[in-house]
User: What shape does this take?
Amino acid sequence: MEAICDPENIDAAVRAVRRNKGAPGIDGMTVTQLPDVLERRWPDIARALVEGAYRPQPVKRVQIPKPDGGIRNLGIPTVIDRVIQQAVLQRRQPVWDPTFSASSYGFRPGRSAQQAVAAAQAYVAAGRQYVVDIDLAKFFDRVNHDRLMAAVAERVRDKRVLGLIRSLLTAGALNEGAFELSQEGTPQGGPLSPLLSNLVLDELDRELERRGLSFVRYADDCNIHVASRKAAERVMASMTRFIERRLKLTVNEAKSAVDWPWNRSFLGFTLKQASGFPRAIAVKAVARFKNRVRDLTRRYRGVSLKTIVADLNPLLRGWAGYFGFSESHEFEGLDGWIRRRLRSLLWVQWKTRRKRLAELMRRGVAKSTAFASIMSPKGPWRISASEALHRALRNKTFKREGLVSMDKLAHA
Assistant: This one.
């Protein structure tokens, strides 16, 4: 505990919490207010931690919709509790992480989702062309506290630290003013939860290794690769029993399956049934992306093109940064689809035939071509693919407005 409370460790934890930003907890304190408040209160907090008497506040319950349906429960600790969790993480992660499986990729320094996808791709290319795709139902909500604390106790001797971690798990939550007990689970939203989740699932990794299975795990997403369907079905049955009986977790039967990898998605990617099994962006990931773009480019938003481009660019940069790992060259087509969305939007914003004729001619479209477009019975989406709109709103037009190209970002 003294190492956790070391001033240098706490200063680093404060910087990390402020850098990660995040919403306030139940006390309303923001990361901007943190340094001044902590300067006044830290001596008392440190004393309570060293004496084993510190008690974290309940987390703030926040529910957000999952992309594929359902609700994800987040638990937002107060910023001071986030600092304490971060301080524990900084001391324990360097010790625990090297002991985790080489096949575990989630929430680990120097490891990424892209590395996990590449490992899965290598297994398929090596001939293990059936995947046992295991989805854990509400994993973070259902972690067994006693099993987790037993795993922590194998690695931590200081009873004060053990008491602090258990109190973080059992602090409860405030959900719209009502207090909820925390009898199981690790609240998503705290810095320490990812490390604790890897500690829980390390037992799963060791069992898979003991059986000599080829697998890739990223947090609670686990893919096991085998050479035949019969073997895959046997592995699915036996690992489901292990997970539910030994780990006290639940396998989501609706989302888990034995299948060809090109029929499944993993971390937003899939593999194509072609030479080398190239990586591609999963269909559902593309659909979610397009829905987000549609929301930002609604035809009746009533804002300028520059504002819409400013709203789009963070999404496009983030998407290119993550999915640029794809080997299937989807970005050129997606860039074109986005520009077509913008042409359609501007056509609607121009509203009247007179305005549309003026805008097209001002942008260099011949009067006869422009007139044919404004008299067309076609709707905005079909018109957006017309010669007139392409001449008036060229690719360089959107580039001048600052629209980024995902294709260029991905191949930079």
